[in-house]
Write the structure tokens for this entry.
Amino acid sequence: MRYHRIPDESVRRLPLYLRALLFATHDRESISSGALADVVGVNSWQIRKDFSYFGELGTRGVGYNIEKLKKHIRKILKLDVLHKAVLVGAGKLGSAVLLHRGFSVYGFDITAVFDNDPKKIGRKLGDTVIQSVSSLHTLKRRNIDVGIIAVPGDVAQQTVDALVKTGVKGILNFSPSYISVPKKVKVLTIDIAMDLARLPYYMPRNHGAG
């Protein structure tokens, strides 16, 4: 199912709603937009507006059936099928990403890890053996559609190019650099330092500072 002309901000909030439904609603069968708003910190009118793009998801006066809503959000986000992922970069950041347990909740399975450090190749990271980046081409026969890169900026583009050649359709980029991909491939970049740089703007100014 394809949805057209949906604001990116609405799509970005859907995982937030799904997380709340998964972890904060165990004692109920249904939830109102107001109750969901209290959990996620988003106005109830915004939640109703976001959901309105995808049809009638709730019942007036009753709210949303939690199980049905979780199923619908998963379908919208295409999380109703298992997504196999590959991680390139087994440094400190990459290791933390691989060992994070939250991915499986949303249907992601990191099935392969690659690095270019001879000292790491062949060793296990969690339950996964680290492979050489020179064998990235073997991904073509593994049905992997998501790539995660946690590599230095100077090798990010060539890493992405190699992943695209294997058929990867989505890339989560932890590299601090801009990368170019074909239109058929979607890239999401996470730069923790850059996001942190935005935080002081929203903080009260310390008038005692120089």
About this structure: The domain at 8-76 is CATH 1.10.10.10 (Arc Repressor Mutant, subunit A).
